[in-house]
């Protein structure tokens, strides 16, 4: 991720494509399992969180926003999965959402086209931001900065001149400064801007869905708690002295 944006973008895109196909393949070959359903969600969360974590380091001013997005994504999906298992039973899929509980979640999980579009454009937005961190001076002002030879010589007086600019300026080639310099001006920013702008509305709506999912799952669990306490005769009335 820090040094090879094209390779990373290609591999990440292939991963997303396979994620869209694995469920279809499992159903086609009658290999659908509960483990596979959980693994599918877990790998989605891990890959997205890894990409957003990089964005938090690439755009430190917006780190708090990326941290909130990661927290919301993990919390809403965990709460939804747990509520489905606890309240719906172990045989109930997390994609089985009744309209009476939430129309928007029912549409999101039961309509394969809607689910694919939202997931695809959500990932496309973060990939677009990722590519912009290598190409847009507007978002990454550090891409405009040039290190003069005199500054490099001053930092390492008497050091042997090396053909690698990173080794001349940075003792550790994996430091934040060295990685930032290596990332500079890797590509044109036109297409990353197009992808980011086009996918932004869907990404924003995806976060709304995450909030709805978190709230609905929390209420469902709370309703179960209330019912369980009633069956146990709780809260018990205190005896008067």
TrEMBL record:
Its EC number is 2.7.8.11. GO terms for cellular component: Golgi apparatus; membrane. GO terms for molecular function: CDP-diacylglycerol-inositol 3-phosphatidyltransferase activity; metal ion binding. Its cofactor is Mg(2+); Mn(2+). GO terms for biological process: phosphatidylinositol biosynthetic process. It catalyses: a CDP-1,2-diacyl-sn-glycerol + myo-inositol = a 1,2-diacyl-sn-glycero-3-phospho-(1D-myo-inositol) + CMP + H(+). The keyword Metal-binding applies. This is CDP-diacylglycerol--inositol 3-phosphatidyltransferase. It comes from Cercophora scortea.
């Amino acid at each position: 991720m820090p040094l090879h944006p094209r390779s990373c973008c290609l591999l990440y895109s292939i991963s997303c494509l396979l994620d869209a196909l694995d469920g279809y393949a499992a159903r086609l070959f009658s290999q659908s399992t509960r483990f596979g359903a959980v693994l599918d969600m877990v790998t989605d969360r891990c890959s997205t969180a890894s990409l957003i974590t990089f964005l938090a380091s690439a755009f430190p001013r917006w780190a708090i926003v990326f941290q909130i997005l990661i927290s919301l994504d993990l919390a809403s999906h965990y709460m939804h999965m747990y509520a489905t298992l606890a309240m719906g039973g172990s045989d109930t899929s997390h994609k089985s959402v009744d309209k009476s509980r939430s129309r928007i979640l029912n549409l999101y999980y039961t309509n394969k086209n809607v689910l694919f579009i939202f997931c695809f454009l959500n990932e496309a937005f973060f990939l677009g931001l990722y590519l912009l961190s290598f190409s847009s001076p507007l978002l990454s002002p550090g891409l405009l900065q040039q290190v003069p030879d005199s500054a490099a010589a001053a930092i390492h007086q008497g050091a042997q001149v090396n053909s690698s600019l990173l080794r001349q300026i940075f003792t550790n080639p994996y430091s934040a400064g060295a990685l930032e310099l290596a990332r500079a001006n890797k590509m044109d920013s036109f297409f990353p801007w197009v992808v980011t702008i086009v996918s932004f509305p869907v990404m924003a709506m995806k976060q709304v869905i995450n909030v709805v999912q978190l709230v609905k799952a929390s209420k469902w669990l709370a309703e179960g708690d209330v019912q369980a306490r009633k069956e146990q005769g709780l809260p018990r009335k205190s005896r008067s002295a």
